[in-house]
Queue: 4 jobs
Job 1
Amino acid sequence: MAVFFASLLPQFVPPGGESFSALLGLGAVFAVMTFTWLALYATVVAKAGDFLRRPSVRRTIEGVTGMVLIGLGIRIATEQR
Protein backbone atom coordinates (compact mmCIF):
# COMPACT_ATOMS: atom_id res chain seq x y z
CA MET A 1 0.00 0.00 0.00
CA ALA A 2 2.87 2.37 0.68
CA VAL A 3 4.11 1.97 -2.90
CA PHE A 4 0.58 2.53 -4.19
CA PHE A 5 0.12 5.74 -2.24
CA ALA A 6 3.62 7.00 -3.00
CA SER A 7 3.34 6.39 -6.74
CA LEU A 8 -0.28 7.08 -7.66
CA LEU A 9 -1.75 9.62 -5.26
CA PRO A 10 0.66 12.56 -5.87
CA GLN A 11 -0.77 13.10 -9.35
CA PHE A 12 -4.12 14.00 -7.75
CA VAL A 13 -2.67 16.60 -5.36
CA PRO A 14 -2.94 20.19 -6.56
CA PRO A 15 0.36 22.05 -6.79
CA GLY A 16 1.11 24.22 -3.81
CA GLY A 17 2.18 24.07 -0.18
CA GLU A 18 -0.67 21.93 1.14
CA SER A 19 0.47 18.62 -0.33
CA PHE A 20 0.63 16.72 2.98
CA SER A 21 -2.91 17.61 3.99
CA ALA A 22 -4.17 16.76 0.49
CA LEU A 23 -2.43 13.36 0.59
CA LEU A 24 -3.80 12.78 4.09
CA GLY A 25 -7.30 13.60 2.85
CA LEU A 26 -6.95 11.24 -0.11
CA GLY A 27 -5.71 8.51 2.23
CA ALA A 28 -8.69 9.08 4.52
CA VAL A 29 -11.11 8.87 1.58
CA PHE A 30 -9.46 5.63 0.50
CA ALA A 31 -9.73 4.21 4.04
CA VAL A 32 -13.43 5.13 4.31
CA MET A 33 -14.18 3.63 0.88
CA THR A 34 -12.34 0.43 1.80
CA PHE A 35 -14.17 0.13 5.12
CA THR A 36 -17.54 0.73 3.45
CA TRP A 37 -16.84 -1.86 0.76
CA LEU A 38 -15.68 -4.50 3.25
CA ALA A 39 -18.66 -3.87 5.56
CA LEU A 40 -21.09 -4.20 2.64
CA TYR A 41 -19.30 -7.33 1.43
CA ALA A 42 -19.45 -8.92 4.90
CA THR A 43 -23.16 -8.13 5.20
CA VAL A 44 -23.97 -9.68 1.82
CA VAL A 45 -21.92 -12.80 2.57
CA ALA A 46 -23.61 -13.21 5.96
CA LYS A 47 -27.07 -12.91 4.43
CA ALA A 48 -26.16 -15.35 1.65
CA GLY A 49 -24.87 -17.80 4.27
CA ASP A 50 -28.13 -17.54 6.21
CA PHE A 51 -30.08 -18.21 3.02
CA LEU A 52 -27.93 -21.17 1.98
CA ARG A 53 -28.23 -22.78 5.44
CA ARG A 54 -32.01 -23.14 5.13
CA PRO A 55 -32.95 -26.84 5.02
CA SER A 56 -34.95 -26.57 1.80
CA VAL A 57 -32.24 -24.66 -0.05
CA ARG A 58 -29.55 -27.00 1.24
CA ARG A 59 -31.55 -30.06 0.18
CA THR A 60 -32.04 -28.59 -3.30
CA ILE A 61 -28.33 -27.80 -3.69
CA GLU A 62 -27.35 -31.28 -2.52
CA GLY A 63 -29.86 -32.85 -4.92
CA VAL A 64 -28.58 -30.88 -7.90
CA THR A 65 -24.96 -31.61 -6.96
CA GLY A 66 -25.77 -35.31 -6.61
CA MET A 67 -27.42 -35.43 -10.03
CA VAL A 68 -24.42 -33.70 -11.60
CA LEU A 69 -22.02 -36.18 -10.00
CA ILE A 70 -24.15 -39.14 -11.10
CA GLY A 71 -24.25 -37.74 -14.63
CA LEU A 72 -20.48 -37.29 -14.71
CA GLY A 73 -20.01 -40.81 -13.36
CA ILE A 74 -22.25 -42.27 -16.06
CA ARG A 75 -20.41 -40.27 -18.71
CA ILE A 76 -17.03 -41.55 -17.51
CA ALA A 77 -18.32 -45.13 -17.23
CA THR A 78 -19.67 -45.13 -20.80
CA GLU A 79 -16.71 -43.34 -22.36
CA GLN A 80 -14.66 -45.44 -24.73
CA ARG A 81 -10.91 -45.44 -24.35
Note: The first helix runs from residue 2 to 8.
Job 2
Amino acid sequence: MPAPIPTTDGRLFADGLVVMTYLDGGPPETQADWRRVAGTLRELHRLTQGWAQRPGWRSSTDLLHVETGTKIDLGAMPPEGVARCRAAWARLTGRQTCVVHGNPNNPGNVRA
Protein backbone atom coordinates (compact mmCIF):
# COMPACT_ATOMS: atom_id res chain seq x y z
CA MET A 1 0.00 0.00 0.00
CA PRO A 2 1.27 3.47 -0.75
CA ALA A 3 1.43 5.83 2.20
CA PRO A 4 0.01 9.36 2.00
CA ILE A 5 2.60 12.13 2.22
CA PRO A 6 1.41 14.92 4.54
CA THR A 7 1.49 18.59 3.65
CA THR A 8 3.84 20.85 5.60
CA ASP A 9 0.98 21.48 8.06
CA GLY A 10 0.24 17.75 8.46
CA ARG A 11 -2.88 17.36 6.30
CA LEU A 12 -3.18 14.22 4.17
CA PHE A 13 -5.91 15.66 1.94
CA ALA A 14 -5.57 19.23 0.62
CA ASP A 15 -7.79 20.94 -1.95
CA GLY A 16 -8.91 17.63 -3.43
CA LEU A 17 -5.41 16.20 -3.69
CA VAL A 18 -3.69 13.31 -1.94
CA VAL A 19 -0.02 12.62 -2.69
CA MET A 20 1.18 9.06 -2.08
CA THR A 21 4.57 7.38 -1.96
CA TYR A 22 5.70 5.69 -5.18
CA LEU A 23 5.12 1.98 -5.59
CA ASP A 24 7.21 0.02 -8.06
CA GLY A 25 5.49 -2.33 -10.47
CA GLY A 26 2.96 -2.02 -13.21
CA PRO A 27 -0.73 -2.56 -13.79
CA PRO A 28 -2.10 -6.10 -13.94
CA GLU A 29 -1.72 -7.46 -17.46
CA THR A 30 -2.96 -11.04 -17.49
CA GLN A 31 -6.01 -12.88 -16.22
CA ALA A 32 -3.75 -14.46 -13.61
CA ASP A 33 -2.68 -10.99 -12.43
CA TRP A 34 -6.32 -9.93 -12.10
CA ARG A 35 -7.16 -13.13 -10.20
CA ARG A 36 -4.41 -12.25 -7.71
CA VAL A 37 -5.84 -8.72 -7.43
CA ALA A 38 -9.30 -10.18 -6.75
CA GLY A 39 -7.86 -12.51 -4.11
CA THR A 40 -6.04 -9.64 -2.42
CA LEU A 41 -9.22 -7.53 -2.36
CA ARG A 42 -11.19 -10.44 -0.85
CA GLU A 43 -8.52 -10.74 1.85
CA LEU A 44 -8.64 -6.98 2.49
CA HIS A 45 -12.42 -7.20 2.93
CA ARG A 46 -12.11 -10.19 5.27
CA LEU A 47 -9.39 -8.66 7.44
CA THR A 48 -11.13 -5.29 7.85
CA GLN A 49 -14.69 -6.41 8.61
CA GLY A 50 -16.35 -4.07 11.06
CA TRP A 51 -13.77 -1.30 10.80
CA ALA A 52 -15.21 2.16 11.30
CA GLN A 53 -15.36 4.69 8.49
CA ARG A 54 -12.18 6.77 8.30
CA PRO A 55 -12.46 10.01 10.28
CA GLY A 56 -14.04 12.88 8.40
CA TRP A 57 -15.51 10.70 5.63
CA ARG A 58 -19.06 9.44 5.09
CA SER A 59 -20.21 5.97 4.14
CA SER A 60 -23.06 5.34 1.71
CA THR A 61 -25.40 4.60 4.59
CA ASP A 62 -24.33 7.83 6.34
CA LEU A 63 -25.52 9.67 3.22
CA LEU A 64 -29.04 8.38 3.78
CA HIS A 65 -29.40 11.06 6.46
CA VAL A 66 -26.98 13.85 5.53
CA GLU A 67 -26.44 15.95 2.41
CA THR A 68 -22.65 16.27 2.36
CA GLY A 69 -19.57 14.27 3.15
CA THR A 70 -15.91 14.76 2.22
CA LYS A 71 -16.13 15.41 -1.55
CA ILE A 72 -19.86 14.66 -1.82
CA ASP A 73 -22.63 17.24 -2.06
CA LEU A 74 -25.99 15.61 -2.71
CA GLY A 75 -27.51 19.09 -3.00
CA ALA A 76 -25.64 19.49 -6.29
CA MET A 77 -27.42 16.46 -7.76
CA PRO A 78 -30.89 16.34 -9.30
CA PRO A 79 -33.39 15.21 -6.63
CA GLU A 80 -34.36 12.11 -8.63
CA GLY A 81 -30.67 11.09 -8.75
CA VAL A 82 -30.36 11.50 -4.99
CA ALA A 83 -33.50 9.42 -4.48
CA ARG A 84 -32.14 6.60 -6.68
CA CYS A 85 -28.76 6.62 -4.92
CA ARG A 86 -30.38 6.57 -1.50
CA ALA A 87 -32.67 3.71 -2.53
CA ALA A 88 -29.60 1.70 -3.52
CA TRP A 89 -27.68 2.67 -0.37
CA ALA A 90 -30.64 1.78 1.85
CA ARG A 91 -30.18 -1.87 0.85
CA LEU A 92 -26.77 -1.76 2.58
CA THR A 93 -28.17 -0.79 5.99
CA GLY A 94 -27.23 -3.34 8.64
CA ARG A 95 -24.72 -5.19 6.44
CA GLN A 96 -21.14 -5.91 7.48
CA THR A 97 -18.73 -3.09 6.66
CA CYS A 98 -15.11 -3.31 5.57
CA VAL A 99 -12.37 -1.34 3.85
CA VAL A 100 -12.84 -1.14 0.07
CA HIS A 101 -10.43 -0.10 -2.66
CA GLY A 102 -12.85 2.29 -4.35
CA ASN A 103 -11.62 2.00 -7.95
CA PRO A 104 -9.72 -1.19 -8.74
CA ASN A 105 -11.09 -1.25 -12.31
CA ASN A 106 -8.57 1.42 -13.31
CA PRO A 107 -5.34 -0.51 -13.95
CA GLY A 108 -3.35 2.59 -12.97
CA ASN A 109 -4.73 2.22 -9.43
CA VAL A 110 -3.40 -1.32 -8.98
CA ARG A 111 0.26 -2.38 -9.00
CA ALA A 112 1.49 -5.91 -9.69
Note: The helical segments are 31-47, 79-90.
Job 3
Amino acid sequence: MSILPRMTTGPERLMLEHMLDRNRQALIDTARGLSEAEARLRLVASLTTPIGLIKHAAVAERRWFQRILLGLDQSECDGYATPGDGSFVVADGETLADVITEFEHASERSRLISADFALDDTKTHPLAGDVSLRFIYLLLIEDFARHAGHGDILREQITAAR
Protein backbone atom coordinates (compact mmCIF):
# COMPACT_ATOMS: atom_id res chain seq x y z
CA MET A 1 0.00 0.00 0.00
CA SER A 2 1.24 3.44 -0.89
CA ILE A 3 2.10 5.72 2.00
CA LEU A 4 -0.03 8.48 0.50
CA PRO A 5 -3.70 7.84 -0.22
CA ARG A 6 -4.77 7.62 -3.85
CA MET A 7 -7.40 10.31 -3.18
CA THR A 8 -6.21 13.53 -1.55
CA THR A 9 -8.91 16.03 -2.55
CA GLY A 10 -12.61 15.89 -3.21
CA PRO A 11 -15.99 15.94 -1.53
CA GLU A 12 -15.98 15.10 2.16
CA ARG A 13 -18.08 11.96 1.83
CA LEU A 14 -15.87 10.48 -0.89
CA MET A 15 -12.77 11.30 1.15
CA LEU A 16 -14.21 9.59 4.24
CA GLU A 17 -15.30 6.52 2.27
CA HIS A 18 -11.91 6.31 0.57
CA MET A 19 -10.03 6.49 3.89
CA LEU A 20 -12.31 3.88 5.43
CA ASP A 21 -11.73 1.54 2.48
CA ARG A 22 -8.00 2.24 2.65
CA ASN A 23 -7.89 1.24 6.32
CA ARG A 24 -10.04 -1.82 5.68
CA GLN A 25 -7.49 -2.95 3.10
CA ALA A 26 -4.54 -2.07 5.35
CA LEU A 27 -5.97 -4.32 8.06
CA ILE A 28 -6.44 -7.21 5.64
CA ASP A 29 -2.91 -6.72 4.29
CA THR A 30 -1.42 -7.25 7.76
CA ALA A 31 -2.61 -10.87 7.74
CA ARG A 32 -2.73 -11.84 4.08
CA GLY A 33 -0.09 -14.45 3.27
CA LEU A 34 0.35 -15.68 6.84
CA SER A 35 -0.06 -19.38 7.43
CA GLU A 36 -3.14 -20.54 9.35
CA ALA A 37 -0.98 -21.18 12.41
CA GLU A 38 0.74 -17.78 12.15
CA ALA A 39 -2.61 -15.99 11.80
CA ARG A 40 -3.71 -17.49 15.13
CA LEU A 41 -0.55 -16.73 17.10
CA ARG A 42 -1.19 -14.89 20.36
CA LEU A 43 1.83 -12.71 20.97
CA VAL A 44 0.16 -10.40 23.51
CA ALA A 45 -1.83 -11.05 26.70
CA SER A 46 -5.17 -10.11 25.10
CA LEU A 47 -7.14 -12.15 22.55
CA THR A 48 -5.51 -10.11 19.77
CA THR A 49 -4.24 -12.22 16.87
CA PRO A 50 -3.87 -11.29 13.19
CA ILE A 51 -6.98 -13.28 12.26
CA GLY A 52 -8.81 -12.05 15.35
CA LEU A 53 -8.26 -8.41 14.37
CA ILE A 54 -10.02 -9.02 11.06
CA LYS A 55 -12.84 -10.93 12.77
CA HIS A 56 -13.23 -8.03 15.20
CA ALA A 57 -13.40 -5.55 12.31
CA ALA A 58 -16.22 -7.56 10.69
CA VAL A 59 -18.11 -7.38 13.98
CA ALA A 60 -17.54 -3.61 14.12
CA GLU A 61 -18.93 -3.25 10.59
CA ARG A 62 -22.09 -5.14 11.54
CA ARG A 63 -22.41 -3.37 14.89
CA TRP A 64 -22.21 0.16 13.50
CA PHE A 65 -23.88 -0.21 10.11
CA GLN A 66 -26.38 -3.05 10.57
CA ARG A 67 -27.30 -2.63 14.24
CA ILE A 68 -26.91 1.10 14.84
CA LEU A 69 -27.47 2.71 11.44
CA LEU A 70 -30.03 0.27 10.02
CA GLY A 71 -31.54 -0.64 13.41
CA LEU A 72 -31.40 -4.41 13.00
CA ASP A 73 -31.59 -6.74 15.98
CA GLN A 74 -28.57 -9.01 16.56
CA SER A 75 -30.59 -11.95 15.23
CA GLU A 76 -31.21 -10.11 11.94
CA CYS A 77 -27.53 -9.35 11.29
CA ASP A 78 -25.52 -11.51 8.90
CA GLY A 79 -23.12 -12.53 11.65
CA TYR A 80 -21.96 -11.80 15.17
CA ALA A 81 -22.47 -8.11 15.99
CA THR A 82 -21.81 -7.75 19.72
CA PRO A 83 -18.83 -5.71 20.94
CA GLY A 84 -16.33 -7.06 23.45
CA ASP A 85 -13.80 -9.88 23.66
CA GLY A 86 -16.12 -12.27 21.81
CA SER A 87 -15.59 -10.23 18.66
CA PHE A 88 -11.99 -11.51 18.46
CA VAL A 89 -12.93 -15.20 18.68
CA VAL A 90 -12.36 -17.26 15.54
CA ALA A 91 -13.78 -20.79 15.34
CA ASP A 92 -11.30 -23.62 14.79
CA GLY A 93 -12.85 -24.45 11.41
CA GLU A 94 -12.59 -20.90 10.05
CA THR A 95 -9.61 -20.15 7.81
CA LEU A 96 -7.88 -16.85 7.30
CA ALA A 97 -9.43 -16.70 3.83
CA ASP A 98 -12.87 -17.28 5.38
CA VAL A 99 -12.41 -14.44 7.86
CA ILE A 100 -11.09 -12.04 5.21
CA THR A 101 -14.10 -12.88 3.02
CA GLU A 102 -16.41 -12.33 6.00
CA PHE A 103 -14.89 -8.89 6.61
CA GLU A 104 -15.07 -7.99 2.91
CA HIS A 105 -18.73 -9.06 2.83
CA ALA A 106 -19.55 -7.05 5.96
CA SER A 107 -17.74 -4.04 4.49
CA GLU A 108 -19.69 -4.29 1.23
CA ARG A 109 -22.96 -4.51 3.14
CA SER A 110 -21.91 -1.42 5.13
CA ARG A 111 -21.30 0.46 1.86
CA LEU A 112 -24.79 -0.48 0.63
CA ILE A 113 -26.44 0.51 3.91
CA SER A 114 -24.62 3.83 4.21
CA ALA A 115 -25.53 4.80 0.63
CA ASP A 116 -29.08 5.48 1.85
CA PHE A 117 -27.96 7.93 4.54
CA ALA A 118 -26.55 11.46 4.52
CA LEU A 119 -23.45 12.25 6.59
CA ASP A 120 -25.55 14.24 9.08
CA ASP A 121 -28.29 11.60 9.50
CA THR A 122 -28.32 10.39 13.11
CA LYS A 123 -29.28 7.24 14.95
CA THR A 124 -29.16 6.50 18.65
CA HIS A 125 -26.37 4.40 20.11
CA PRO A 126 -27.28 2.83 23.50
CA LEU A 127 -24.22 4.32 25.23
CA ALA A 128 -23.04 7.23 23.04
CA GLY A 129 -26.45 8.75 22.33
CA ASP A 130 -27.03 10.32 18.94
CA VAL A 131 -24.38 9.45 16.35
CA SER A 132 -24.18 10.55 12.73
CA LEU A 133 -22.98 8.61 9.72
CA ARG A 134 -20.02 11.02 9.67
CA PHE A 135 -19.16 9.97 13.24
CA ILE A 136 -19.44 6.27 12.31
CA TYR A 137 -17.10 6.77 9.35
CA LEU A 138 -14.57 8.66 11.48
CA LEU A 139 -14.77 6.14 14.34
CA LEU A 140 -14.17 3.16 12.06
CA ILE A 141 -11.39 4.94 10.17
CA GLU A 142 -9.68 5.45 13.53
CA ASP A 143 -10.46 1.94 14.77
CA PHE A 144 -9.28 0.14 11.65
CA ALA A 145 -6.13 2.28 11.40
CA ARG A 146 -5.28 1.45 15.02
CA HIS A 147 -5.89 -2.25 14.46
CA ALA A 148 -3.86 -2.22 11.23
CA GLY A 149 -1.01 -0.84 13.36
CA HIS A 150 -1.48 -3.68 15.82
CA GLY A 151 -1.50 -6.11 12.89
CA ASP A 152 1.70 -4.60 11.48
CA ILE A 153 3.49 -5.14 14.79
CA LEU A 154 2.22 -8.71 15.10
CA ARG A 155 3.28 -9.46 11.53
CA GLU A 156 6.76 -8.04 12.19
CA GLN A 157 7.10 -10.35 15.19
CA ILE A 158 5.82 -13.35 13.22
CA THR A 159 8.02 -12.84 10.18
CA ALA A 160 11.08 -12.12 12.32
CA ALA A 161 10.60 -15.49 14.06
CA ARG A 162 10.49 -17.48 10.79
Note: Residues 133-160 form the longest helix (28 residues).
Job 4
Amino acid sequence: MLKVSEILRVKGHTLYTATPDMPITKALETMSEQDIGSLVIMEHGELVGMLTFREIIRHLHANGGNTGANTIRSIMDDAPVSVTPNTSAEEVQRLMLDKHARYMPVMDGPVLQGVISFYDMAQAIVAAQQFENNMLKAYIRDWPGDGEALKAEERS
Protein backbone atom coordinates (compact mmCIF):
# COMPACT_ATOMS: atom_id res chain seq x y z
CA MET A 1 0.00 0.00 0.00
CA LEU A 2 1.43 3.33 -1.11
CA LYS A 3 2.06 5.82 1.72
CA VAL A 4 2.48 9.60 1.75
CA SER A 5 6.09 9.22 2.93
CA GLU A 6 6.94 7.34 -0.30
CA ILE A 7 5.33 10.03 -2.45
CA LEU A 8 7.29 12.75 -0.62
CA ARG A 9 10.53 10.79 -1.03
CA VAL A 10 10.08 10.75 -4.82
CA LYS A 11 8.74 14.30 -4.99
CA GLY A 12 11.39 15.83 -2.77
CA HIS A 13 11.02 18.05 0.25
CA THR A 14 11.18 21.53 -1.27
CA LEU A 15 8.71 23.71 0.63
CA TYR A 16 7.51 27.22 -0.01
CA THR A 17 6.20 28.99 3.05
CA ALA A 18 4.98 32.43 3.97
CA THR A 19 3.85 34.25 7.07
CA PRO A 20 0.26 35.37 7.64
CA ASP A 21 1.32 39.02 7.65
CA MET A 22 2.95 38.88 4.21
CA PRO A 23 1.16 41.03 1.61
CA ILE A 24 -0.92 39.10 -0.92
CA THR A 25 1.10 40.72 -3.71
CA LYS A 26 4.28 39.10 -2.35
CA ALA A 27 2.53 35.72 -2.19
CA LEU A 28 1.43 36.13 -5.83
CA GLU A 29 4.98 36.97 -6.81
CA THR A 30 6.41 33.91 -5.04
CA MET A 31 3.79 31.53 -6.44
CA SER A 32 4.26 32.87 -9.96
CA GLU A 33 8.07 32.83 -9.91
CA GLN A 34 8.25 29.35 -8.39
CA ASP A 35 5.38 27.99 -10.54
CA ILE A 36 3.53 26.63 -7.50
CA GLY A 37 -0.15 26.52 -6.60
CA SER A 38 0.12 26.86 -2.85
CA LEU A 39 2.04 28.32 0.05
CA VAL A 40 2.17 26.84 3.52
CA ILE A 41 1.50 29.58 6.05
CA MET A 42 3.72 29.31 9.12
CA GLU A 43 3.82 31.43 12.26
CA HIS A 44 6.23 30.86 15.15
CA GLY A 45 7.24 27.52 13.63
CA GLU A 46 3.68 26.20 13.44
CA LEU A 47 1.31 25.58 10.54
CA VAL A 48 -1.45 28.19 10.70
CA GLY A 49 -2.90 27.96 7.20
CA MET A 50 -2.66 27.32 3.49
CA LEU A 51 -2.88 29.77 0.65
CA THR A 52 -3.79 28.38 -2.75
CA PHE A 53 -4.69 29.93 -6.06
CA ARG A 54 -8.35 29.29 -5.10
CA GLU A 55 -8.23 31.79 -2.21
CA ILE A 56 -6.35 34.31 -4.35
CA ILE A 57 -8.85 34.06 -7.22
CA ARG A 58 -11.78 34.49 -4.82
CA HIS A 59 -10.11 37.56 -3.30
CA LEU A 60 -9.36 39.09 -6.69
CA HIS A 61 -12.91 38.46 -7.88
CA ALA A 62 -14.39 40.07 -4.75
CA ASN A 63 -12.11 43.11 -5.10
CA GLY A 64 -12.36 43.90 -8.78
CA GLY A 65 -9.00 42.33 -9.58
CA ASN A 66 -7.09 44.28 -6.93
CA THR A 67 -5.14 42.78 -4.05
CA GLY A 68 -5.09 46.04 -2.14
CA ALA A 69 -2.90 46.19 0.94
CA ASN A 70 -4.40 42.99 2.35
CA THR A 71 -2.27 40.31 3.93
CA ILE A 72 -2.37 36.57 3.52
CA ARG A 73 -4.09 36.26 6.92
CA SER A 74 -7.23 37.88 5.49
CA ILE A 75 -7.71 35.23 2.79
CA MET A 76 -5.84 32.06 3.85
CA ASP A 77 -7.52 28.80 4.78
CA ASP A 78 -6.84 28.81 8.53
CA ALA A 79 -7.98 25.21 9.06
CA PRO A 80 -6.37 23.13 6.31
CA VAL A 81 -6.85 19.37 6.33
CA SER A 82 -3.49 17.67 6.81
CA VAL A 83 -2.20 14.12 6.58
CA THR A 84 0.70 12.23 8.15
CA PRO A 85 3.59 10.45 6.44
CA ASN A 86 1.86 7.14 7.26
CA THR A 87 -1.44 8.08 5.59
CA SER A 88 -2.26 5.79 2.67
CA ALA A 89 -2.56 7.17 -0.84
CA GLU A 90 -6.15 5.92 -0.93
CA GLU A 91 -7.03 7.96 2.16
CA VAL A 92 -5.38 11.07 0.68
CA GLN A 93 -7.44 10.63 -2.50
CA ARG A 94 -10.63 10.32 -0.47
CA LEU A 95 -9.82 13.40 1.62
CA MET A 96 -8.90 15.47 -1.42
CA LEU A 97 -12.17 14.60 -3.11
CA ASP A 98 -14.32 15.00 0.02
CA LYS A 99 -12.76 18.33 1.03
CA HIS A 100 -12.19 19.69 -2.50
CA ALA A 101 -8.54 20.15 -1.54
CA ARG A 102 -5.83 20.22 -4.19
CA TYR A 103 -3.01 20.62 -1.66
CA MET A 104 -2.53 18.95 1.72
CA PRO A 105 0.21 19.64 4.23
CA VAL A 106 1.99 16.57 5.55
CA MET A 107 2.55 16.82 9.30
CA ASP A 108 4.60 14.53 11.52
CA GLY A 109 3.24 15.72 14.85
CA PRO A 110 3.91 19.47 14.90
CA VAL A 111 6.60 19.24 12.18
CA LEU A 112 5.77 20.11 8.58
CA GLN A 113 7.20 17.43 6.27
CA GLY A 114 5.92 18.65 2.92
CA VAL A 115 2.83 19.23 0.80
CA ILE A 116 1.04 16.64 -1.33
CA SER A 117 -0.78 17.98 -4.36
CA PHE A 118 -3.48 16.48 -6.53
CA TYR A 119 -0.83 16.31 -9.28
CA ASP A 120 1.56 14.41 -6.96
CA MET A 121 -1.19 11.90 -6.25
CA ALA A 122 -1.97 11.39 -9.93
CA GLN A 123 1.70 10.95 -10.75
CA ALA A 124 2.17 8.40 -7.93
CA ILE A 125 -0.89 6.41 -8.97
CA VAL A 126 0.23 6.24 -12.61
CA ALA A 127 3.73 5.13 -11.54
CA ALA A 128 2.28 2.44 -9.24
CA GLN A 129 -0.01 1.18 -12.03
CA GLN A 130 2.89 1.06 -14.51
CA PHE A 131 4.97 -0.91 -12.00
CA GLU A 132 2.12 -3.36 -11.41
CA ASN A 133 1.55 -3.74 -15.17
CA ASN A 134 5.25 -4.45 -15.72
CA MET A 135 5.27 -7.03 -12.94
CA LEU A 136 2.18 -8.75 -14.39
CA LYS A 137 3.69 -8.77 -17.88
CA ALA A 138 6.92 -10.29 -16.54
CA TYR A 139 4.91 -12.91 -14.64
CA ILE A 140 2.88 -13.79 -17.73
CA ARG A 141 6.01 -13.91 -19.91
CA ASP A 142 7.57 -16.42 -17.49
CA TRP A 143 4.39 -18.52 -17.28
CA PRO A 144 5.06 -22.13 -18.24
CA GLY A 145 3.47 -22.52 -21.66
CA ASP A 146 2.08 -25.61 -23.37
CA GLY A 147 5.37 -26.10 -25.17
CA GLU A 148 7.24 -26.43 -21.88
CA ALA A 149 4.65 -28.85 -20.53
CA LEU A 150 5.08 -31.04 -23.64
CA LYS A 151 8.85 -31.02 -23.27
CA ALA A 152 8.51 -32.10 -19.65
CA GLU A 153 6.16 -34.93 -20.73
CA GLU A 154 8.60 -36.10 -23.40
CA ARG A 155 11.40 -36.29 -20.80
CA SER A 156 9.43 -38.69 -18.62
Note: Helices lie at 4-11, 24-34, 53-62, 89-99, 118-141, 146-155.
